[in-house]
Specification:
The protein is built from 13 helices and five strands. The chain starts with 14 loop residues before the first helix and ends in a 12-residue tail after the last helix. The strands form two sheets. Strands 1-2-3 form a three-stranded antiparallel sheet. 51% of the residues lie in helices and 8% in strands. Keywords: DNA integration, DNA recombination, DNA-binding.
Length: 317
C-alpha cells in the first residue's frame, strides 16, 4: 500500500525541533514515554522522506500508509499503536489536528491489529522461589553484593527499573522494622509528590541485610545506591542505567540454570505481585506496595497466581 500524493516536506523542515516539542508540551508524560514517542516519530519522518510525503502536518492517507508499512514489516500491534500515538502527540504539540483521528487511519489500525493479533509476550515473573534459586549462585564478591542487594530491593519494593537505579542513599529511611524507600518521581507520580514503600526486615530473603552489606562494602554513604563497577573492581560514582537492571537479572538467571530469555528487568516487580497474591495477600495491600491505581491491572497476575486453585478438573484430572 502506497500513500496518495502529498506535499513534499519543505527544505527547512527540522524533525528534531518537532520531536523536542513533545518534551516541552507534554511534561506530564513519563520520561520513557517521551523518549519512545520521539523515537517513533523520527521513524515516521524518515519514512515520509523516503516516499516524498510531508510528515508535518501529515495527511490521513499518509499515516494510513505508514501503518500498513509497519504491519507489512512485521511490527507488533503494540508498536503500531505507539507510532500512531506519537504522530498524534507531535501534531497536537505543533497546533495541528492529529490525522490519526480520521476513519481511514482507524480502519487501517483495526485491520492491522486483526491481522497481527494483539496478544502481548509477557516475561516470566521472578517469584520469591525463583529468587532463592538465583541468590544461591550469586558470589560474595563486590559485584555480587551489589547485584544481590539490587535484585532483592527491586523485588521487595516492587520497583520499576527506572525507580531502582534512581535511588540515592538519602531515599532510604531506616526504621526499627526495616526500611522506608522514598520514590521521588515515578510513572504514577509525574508531579513528583513522592511515594513511600515499606520494606520489612524479614527473616527469609533478608533484604535489609543485603542492602547494608553492599553499602558497607562499597563505602557508600551518599549519592547513588547502585553504581557501575569496572572489570578491575573499582566502584564508579555513576549510577547504573535501567538497562543494567535487565542485564544483571538475565546474567544471574542464566547462572542459576534458568532460561534468561524468559525474564526481564520487569520480572522483579511482576514477581513480587505474583508471590504476594499466591500467598493470599490482600489486593489493596499489594497495591500499596506496587502503587497501581487500578485493581484491574493486577488481575492478570491474580489469574496466574491462582490458576490451580479450585481448578474445574481438580477432582478428575
Amino acid at each position: 500500500m502506497s500513500p496518495l500524493p502529498v506535499p513534499v516536506a519543505p527544505a527547512n523542515f527540522t524533525p528534531v525541533s518537532l520531536v523536542r516539542a513533545i518534551a516541552y508540551s507534554a511534561e506530564a508524560r513519563a520520561e520513557r514515554t517521551r523518549k519512545a514517542y520521539s523515537s517513533a516519530f523520527t521513524g515516521f519522518v524518515n519514512w515520509c522522506r523516503s516516499v516524498g510525503a510531508n510528515p508535518m502536518p501529515a495527511e490521513a492517507p499518509t499515516v494510513a500508509a505508514y501503518v500498513a508499512h509497519l504491519a507489512d514489516s512485521g511490527r507488533k500491534a503494540a508498536t503500531i499503536n505507539l507510532h500512531v500515538a506519537a504522530i498524534a502527540a507531535v501534531h497536537r504539540a505543533g497546533g495541528h489536528e492529529p490525522p490519526t483521528g480520521a476513519e481511514a487511519v482507524k480502519a487501517t489500525v483495526r485491520g492491522a491489529r486483526r491481522a497481527l493479533g494483539t496478544r502481548q509476550t509477557r516475561k516470566a515473573p521472578a517469584t520469591a522461589e525463583t529468587l532463592k534459586k538465583v541468590l544461591r549462585k550469586v558470589p560474595d564478591t563486590t559485584t555480587g553484593l551489589r547485584d544481590r542487594a539490587l535484585l532483592l530491593l527491586g523485588f521487595a519494593a516492587a520497583l520499576r527499573r527506572s525507580e531502582l537505579v534512581a535511588l540515592d542513599v538519602a531515599d532510604l529511611e531506616r526504621v526499627p522494622d526495616g526500611i522506608i524507600v522514598h520514590i521521588r518521581r515515578s510513572k504514577t507520580d509525574q508531579d513528583g509528590a513522592g511515594q513511600e514503600i515499606a520494606v520489612p526486615r524479614g527473616s527469609k530473603l533478608k533484604v535489609c541485610e543485603a542492602l547494608d552489606a553492599w553499602l558497607a562494602a562499597a563505602r557508600i554513604i551518599t549519592g547513588p545506591v547502585f553504581r557501575s563497577i569496572n572489570k578491575g573492581g573499582a566502584i564508579s560514582s555513576e549510577r547504573l542505567t535501567d538497562r543494567s537492571v535487565a542485564d544483571i537479572m538475565k546474567h544471574h538467571i542464566a547462572a542459576a540454570g534458568l532460561d534468561a530469555t524468559l525474564f526481564s528487568g520487569h520480572s522483579l516487580r511482576a514477581g513480587f505481585v505474583t508471590s504476594a497474591l499466591a500467598a493470599g495477600a490482600d489486593v489493596l495491600k499489594v497495591m500499596h506496595v506496587t502503587r497501581h491505581t487500578q485493581v484491574t491491572t493486577l488481575q492478570k497476575y491474580d489469574r496466574r497466581a491462582r490458576a490451580f486453585d479450585d481448578h474445574a478438573g481438580k477432582k478428575f484430572l
